[in-house]
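Section 3.1: Structural characterization of target chains.
Under the original work plan, the team committed to producing a structural model for every single-chain target entering the pipeline before any wet-lab resources were allocated. The record below documents one such target. The sequence was received from the expression subgroup and is listed exactly as submitted; it comprises 146 residues.
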Amino acid sequence: MIESKRFIKILLIAVALSSMLLGGCSLNSANYVGNEENYSDRAPRKLGRGMTNILTAPLEIPNQAVDLAAENDEPAQQAAGYVGGFFVGVAYAGGRVVSGMYDIVTSPFGGPSVPTMDPDLIKSDFCAKVEKRDESFKDVTGIGAE
C-alpha cells in the first residue's frame, strides 16, 4: 500500500514536470527565446515540439474527421467526410509521430530547426469551415440574410 502511494506521487510529479516542459518548450510565439539565431537556444523548442507531436498525434484522427465533415451540408456527404477523415487522420497521426521522433532525436545534434510538419502543432479549421458553410446556406436560401 505504501509503495503504491509512492508510485502515484512519483507519477504525478513526472506528469507535472513533463507538462511544464511541453508548455514552455512548444510555445508558438515570435517572442519566445526559441526563435533566436543560435541553435542552442532553439533546441529546447525543437525538443518540446517533438514531444508535443508524439503525445498529441492520436488527436489528429478526430480532428481530420470533423474538419472533412464540416465542409459539406448534406448528411451523406458529412458521413463520407467522417469516414474519409478517419483515414486521413490516421495518416496525419503517423506523420506527427515520425516528425516528433525526428525532432526529439535531432534536437541535441543540430540539423534544421524548421518544423517537418505544416502546421508544426495540431490546428483545426473547423470553425472557419462551418462559418463559410453557414454563409453559403444563407446565400442560397435567403434565410437569415437581411
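The chain is about 70% helix and 0% strand.
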